[in-house]
Amino acid sequence: MAALPVYRWRLAPDGYATRRQLRARGLRPGGQDVAAQLERPRRRRGPLVAHLYRIDLAKPVRPMTPARWAALAKANAARRTCPACRRDAGYVIPASLGMCAPCAYPEQYAA
Asked: Which of 60, 64, 78, 104 has its Cβ near the most Cβ atoms within 10 Å?
């Protein structure tokens, strides 16, 4: 098993990119293995590690189909629906509350 090449922060050669950098270019790793690592040193802890992928082996991002758009809209609607009053809160219900603000704090919203 060969070791991955490790580069210091901001010193990676051209032709490599992180997942976020690939996504910004409209690409995805496409099943390729990690080609290299980028390390950023930190004090008192281990270094931050970012995985790098080869840009020439990356594939284009798959387009969203109408069915995937519909599923995403349905999932987002479920995150906005209060389980207590079954109304659309207009915002994503916080997991810490588990319900919309008027249901969680009825004394503040009674007036």
From this structure: 104
